Each structure stands twice: as C-alpha cells, then as structure tokens.
C-alpha cells in the first residue's frame, strides 16, 4: 500500500468543543457546548471551516449550511478520564489515560511545597490554592514583587502553576524553578503539567507569551515516536513540544498567539515536505475560554478561519489537513474550567472528490491511528483508523 499523503498538517483549535459528551454530568459539565453557545450570543462567519463540513457534523447545535462540503467531517468522543490539554492531546496520539492525573482542589501538600521552597532557595510561596491565573496575580502581584515569593496555584486540571514577575525572576529562572517542581512532582503527585506563568507591568499586570509547560512524558507507543523512528519530520508549533515533553519531536517552535501559530505553520510548510506539522492554537482556551470572553472567542474563530484560507491555498496535492479540538471550554458556562465535550474533526485534501461524513469517532486516538496507517507505521494500542474514508473521498466511484 502506498501512502495517500506525503505530509500531514494537524491543527488543534484548543478548547473548541462541539457539545456535551454522554458522561459530561460526571464531570459537572451537563449542558456545556462551547461552539453552540457562542453562536447563541453572536453570529460567526467561518466560511472555510463551513466548506470543510463544520456545520454538517451530526447532532450539533450549529445551524446547517446549504453549502456542499468539500472535506471529511465528524466529531470524536474522549475515552480518557479527564478533560484537560494533556489528556486530550495524549489520546490523539494513541495514549489513553484510564486513571486521571492527580488534582489539588485544596492546594498542594505541605511536604511538596516545603521541598520546592528549599530546592529553589526562595523565601517561600504565595497562594497554594485553586485560582484563575489572571485573578491570582491581581491578588498577590504586589506582595510577590515586595517579598520575592513566587505565586503557586492550581486549577481543576492537573497543573502546578508558578507565576512570577519578569523583573523579579527572569523567565529563565522561572523555568529553572519549574524543572525543580517537575522533579519533585512524581509518583502519587505526578501532575500532568508544571506551568511557568510569567507576567509584567504594574497593576493591572499582564501575562506574557513566555509561558512554558513542563509535562510528563507519554508512553512511547504513540504516532509521534513512530514517525520519528521512521526518519520522518515531526515539527511542533506552539505548546505541542511541551505537551509531549519533546517525545517524538524533531523540530519545534513556540508561539506568542494564534496568528503567530499560523505564521509558523505556514513557514514549516515551506521547509518540510514529508512527515507531520503539528500545531496547537492556544488562545481559544487561554485567552477567551477560561476568561469567559464570548465576543473574543467568536472573533478569534473568524480570524483563524481567514488564516485557514491562506493555508488551504498553500496545500499541495499530497497534503492532508486535519483540524480538531482537544476538549471544550464553554465561555458561557459556570466557572472557568474546561468542559467535557465532543470535539469537531475536519479533514481536507485537494485529492478529495466528494465529501464524507465520519459520524462519531469512538476515540480521539482514531486520528493518530489514521495517520499511522497513512505512513505505514505499526498500529497504536488504541484507536480505529478511518483511512478508508479518505480512499472513498478520493475515489468518486466507490
């Protein structure tokens, strides 16, 4: 079997969920619908995603378009026990997590904090609670600057976050503290991510693009490692490298926002002609979802759609484009946390002669398994390939 596509451009539109999963109530998310609820507050003009089949996905709140799709489209369930960035991305590449990562709704244990303070040689910490990142730097920013105590906090996700003013601790010093925390947080305290949250300015403070994530390393039985072992390029854009702790990555670039993420993706398309370009666009989640900014979220989707048009024009005959989310983050919902939702899956190639409906995929890992089949890689331990649907979309007589 010869591979249908020489190059895959895989874009994660972070948090763009498309309606509650059947088990959403178990996570406190019954009724969540990121994209559907945004549309109740404002119209969204996304002609390129519409052409790929977004509004034709089965059983969503999105109004159906009269436009005949040109892509392969559907939605996917999550089988892993969680609703965060790490769990979602890991499942995509073939690593499903039946046991959730540990969370700390009441803050981190005293022994963890004490060891962190000692090993970092700092005067102590502020916070150690569950908090919104923007709110906690408002609350503790002044005291942090005066005392030089880092702000440590968590969320509903499995994260240990450290916020520091860049004039107090440089990003490099903050990253060093994160590496120390990453070493401490193992075993029963093995949180999914340690996150550096630098900020600048005076009140109100502003978080910067120097954020870095320090993740656990996923099981090596995943599509990224298999691609790399075959000698293919795996280029990571945005926080992709951090999410997988560099596992299976051959080249990486960090980004400051969604527009920069699209710029870097297009740049890689100029230099990489075989393998995978894997991009995460984080602003949907970090800037608009968690901050419950419906207007900003809608505008961000429209801005992405314009850039998607640029990317589609740049696609070559042997390219496959995949767009999907990793969880929801409904900006109209209660609280500020992620939401347990289906994710949209949109695929396109210039080879496609007719649209195809994927229906509902049983796992995010179906995407990674499909990429494995295209590149003739050993199969993953989880996920079912829909590669044959691409063959049907290409052959109009099937």
Low-confidence stretches: none
CATH topology of the largest domain: Alkaline Phosphatase, subunit A
> In order across it, which strands form the biggest sheet?
10-9-11-1-12-13-2-14
> What separation lies between the terminal Cα atoms?
18 Å
Please work out how many helical segments DSSP would assign.
13
Name some characteristics of this structure.
single chain; 398 residues; alpha/beta; Alkaline Phosphatase, subunit A; Alpha-Beta Plaits; 2 domains; 8-stranded mixed beta sheet; 6-stranded mixed beta sheet; 13 helices; 19% strand; globular
Describe the structure.
It contains 13 helices and 14 strands. It has an eight-stranded mixed beta sheet, with helices on both faces. Strands 3, 4, 5, 6, 7 and 8 form a six-stranded mixed beta sheet that branches. The longest helix is centred in the C-terminal third of the chain and has 21 residues, at 294-314. α3 (85-93) packs parallel to α12, α9 (258-271) packs parallel to α11 and α10 runs antiparallel to α11 (294-314). The protein has helices spanning 34-41, 47-52, 85-93, 110-120, 133-147, 171-184, 223-229, 240-243, 258-271, 283-289, 294-314, 365-374, 387-394, and strands spanning 7-13, 72-76, 126-130, 151-154, 159-165, 193-200, 206-207, 212-215, 233-237, 251-253, 275-281, 319-324, 343-348, 356-361. α5 links the parallel β3 (126-130) and β4 (151-154). It starts with 6 loop residues before the first strand and ends with a helix. Helix content is 34%, strand content 19%. The chain has two domains: 7-95 and 218-394, 3-Layer(aba) Sandwich (Alkaline Phosphatase, subunit A), CATH 3.40.720.10; 110-215, Alpha-Beta Plaits.
């Amino acid at each position: 079997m010869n591979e249908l596509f020489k190059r895959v451009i895989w874009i994660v539109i972070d948090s763009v969920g498309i309606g509650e999963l059947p088990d959403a109530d178990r996570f406190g998310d019954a009724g969540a619908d990121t994209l559907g609820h945004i549309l109740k507050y404002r119209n969204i003009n996304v002609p390129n995603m519409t052409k790929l089949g977004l509004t034709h996905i089965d059983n969503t709140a999105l109004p159906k378009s009269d436009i005949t799709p040109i892509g392969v489209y559907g939605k996917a369930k999550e089988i892993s026990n969680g609703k965060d960035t790490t769990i979602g991305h890991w499942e995509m590449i073939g690593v499903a997590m039946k046991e959730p990562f540990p969370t700390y709704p009441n803050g981190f244990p005293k022994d963890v904090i004490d060891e962190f303070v000692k090993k970092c040689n700092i005067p102590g910490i502020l916070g150690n609670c569950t908090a919104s990142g923007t709110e906690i730097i408002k609350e503790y920013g002044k005291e942090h600057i005066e005392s030089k105590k880092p702000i440590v906090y968590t969320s509903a996700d499995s994260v240990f976050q450290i916020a520091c003013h860049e004039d107090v601790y440089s990003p490099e010093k903050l990253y060093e503290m994160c590496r120390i925390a990453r070493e401490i947080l193992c075993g029963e305290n093995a949180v999914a991510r340690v996150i550096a949250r630098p900020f600048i300015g005076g009140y109100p403070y502003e978080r910067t693009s120097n954020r870095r994530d320090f993740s656990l390393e996923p099981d090596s039985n995943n599509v990224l490692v298999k691609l790399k072992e075959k000698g293919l390029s795996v280029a990571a854009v945005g926080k992709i490298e951090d999410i997988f702790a560099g596992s299976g990555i051959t080249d990486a670039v960090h980004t400051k926002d969604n527009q920069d993420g699209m710029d870097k993706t297009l740049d890689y398309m100029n230099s990489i002609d075989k393998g995978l370009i894997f991009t995460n666009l984080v602003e949907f989640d970090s800037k608009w979802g968690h901050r419950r900014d419906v207007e900003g979220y809608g505008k961000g989707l429209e801005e992405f759609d314009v850039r998607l048009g640029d990317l589609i024009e740049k696609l070559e005959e042997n390219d496959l484009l995949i767009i999907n989310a990793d969880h929801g983050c409904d900006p109209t919902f209660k609280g500020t946390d992620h939401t347990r939702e289906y994710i949209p899956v949109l695929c396109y190639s210039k080879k496609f002669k007719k649209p195809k409906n994927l229906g509902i995929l049983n796992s995010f890992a179906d995407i990674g398994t499909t990429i494995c089949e295209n590149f003739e890689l050993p199969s993953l331990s989880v996920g079912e390939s829909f590669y044959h649907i691409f063959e049907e979309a290409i052959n109009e007589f099937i």
